[in-house]
Design a protein that fits this description.
6-stranded antiparallel sheet; 5-stranded antiparallel sheet
Amino acid sequence: MTSDESLGLIGSTDAITRRMSHHWGFAIAIIPDEKPQMITEPFCQSDLALSVMDYLQLTEETTDFIGRSIFRIYTQPRPLFFGSTYGQFVGMFDSAGKLNVFNDRFKPLYSADTAPDALFRISPLEEEPDNLGVIAAVVSRSLGDPSPTNGRIITLADRPFLISGNLQETYVFGHQYLAIDQDAVLVIELDVMISTSEKNRVKLQHRFWVGDSYPSKFVSPRLSDKGRYRVRCIYRTGAAQPEVFLRQLALREQLTDATIKFDRATITVVPISDWDGPDLWPGEFRILEED
C-alpha cells in the first residue's frame, strides 16, 4: 500500500518545505510469515515495481526498471527523482542530499541544502548544474510518444471508469501537455453513458485550455442511469502549442457508485492545411454538436 500525493505541511513553514511535503508518502508491505521491518531510507514510486520483482526473486528481469528494492538494505545513498505535473516542475536529491529543482522545460529554479534550523536552506541556481542531463534522461522515461501529434487521434479514455468513495467531485481524466507543432484544428469528441443507482444523477464538467489561456468549459446535463452525453467541439491552435489540456470532472448528486462508459473520448489533430470544416479564428473554441 502506498500513496500518490500528500496534503503535506499546511502550517506556517517555508515555501520550499511546503512544496516538498506534497511529495511525502508512505509504503506498507504486508508479507506472510515475516517479522516487521522499518523502511529507513527515502523511497520513490519508481522503487515499487522493482521491489515486487525482487520479492518474487525475478531480479534478472528487472533491467528495464529504475530504483531500489525496499526489501534490501543499502550501504550507499542514491539520487531521488520526483516531479509535479500540476506544479510544472521536476526535482532531484543527489546522493549527498542536495536538492535541485527545475521547471518543466528543465530551466534551473533553485537548489537547497539541509540546515540546522530548517529542513531546507535555499540558494538560487545561477549556473546549469552538472546533473541536469541526468534528470532530463530520467524524466524522458516517463513521457509518452514524443512524436508530433499532427494527424493523430489521441485517446482520452477507453475503459469504464468507476466513481466511488465519499467525494462528490472526481477527476475522470486529465490529459495534459499535448504538444501541437503547427497551426491545427483539434476535434474533441465524447460519447459517454452513465450507469448508476435509480436516484443518483451525474454531471460531467469539462475544461479545455491551451497554455496560460482562460479555460473553455462545457458541461453535460444531469445524467441518470443509462443517460448518454455526446459532444463534438473544435479549437484552432493558430500556431505551435506546447501545452494543451483537457480534463473531465464528474459530480454526483448522491454518494452512490457510478460508472462512466466511453464509446468515444478522443482528440483528433488536423493540420489547418487539411481542415475542411467551418472557418475558425486562431484561438477560437466552438461546440459543433451536443446532446
